[in-house]
Description:
Layout (H helix, E strand, L loop, with lengths): L1 H16 L23
Amino acid sequence: MLAAALEAEVDAYIAELADQRDERGRVTFNHPGPTTPSPT
């Protein structure tokens, strides 16, 4: 139950930051975890 609540809170936080971009149009926030690095 606690894990589900934390996961929901993290998902909401990430959703708030998902549309933030830097001056070059790149996403400024990435969810930590196993992913493929973005090309720079």
